[in-house]
Amino acid sequence: MTDLPGSLLIETPSVNRPNDLGQSAPRAYAPGITWSSDVPSAFGFHRLYGFQDNGAWFNKPMIGLGQASGTMTLSFAAPVAGVGGFFNYAQSLGAPIGDAPTIAIYDAAHHLLDSTVLNFDTGRADLSGYFFGFDVGNALISSFEMSGAYIGMSDLRVLAADTTPAQVPEPATLVLAGGALMVMRGMSRRQRRLPNA
């Protein structure tokens, strides 16, 4: 999906250290959200990060896969119903560099819930990209994985579970509604019995 209505925007933390591009150990992305990568990658990076023919990001805190293959993961302490982000990836001559850029969501048992391969061309525009995400309707998503093509993401969006309980009418309301229906039914019968003028 290219929109996630009702979601909460969680900006990528900004880190300003020389080793921003060499991260892989788990890091706190936000309360209840942990980032990790299976290859050295960018966490909180906000300097120039190139995506070849898809332009570049700069002055934009982001997470970015440090190789053409590998996976970054955002893990949620409490499962969520929807997740997405603003993405870009490295491509040259219209083709991804390395593995196809893929985003996927998993449940707590690491069963795949959904995935999609990204395929877009920014026309070499800097600070560009597109929003992609998933909404499964219930709090089932425990992890969000991004892989291939030096994929980068910023502006994480999370849709929490709908915790609003269904409204159940109180007994007094049901009695009033039932009484009103009986009166309306009686009036309808009475109107049918009246002769036509």
Automatic annotation (TrEMBL):
- In this chain the Ice-binding protein C-terminal domain maps to 167-190
What is the protein name given in its UniProt record?
PEP-CTERM sorting domain-containing protein
Q: What organism is recorded for this protein?
A: Roseateles paludis
**What high-level taxonomic lineage is stated for the organism?**
Bacteria, Pseudomonadati, Pseudomonadota, Betaproteobacteria, Burkholderiales
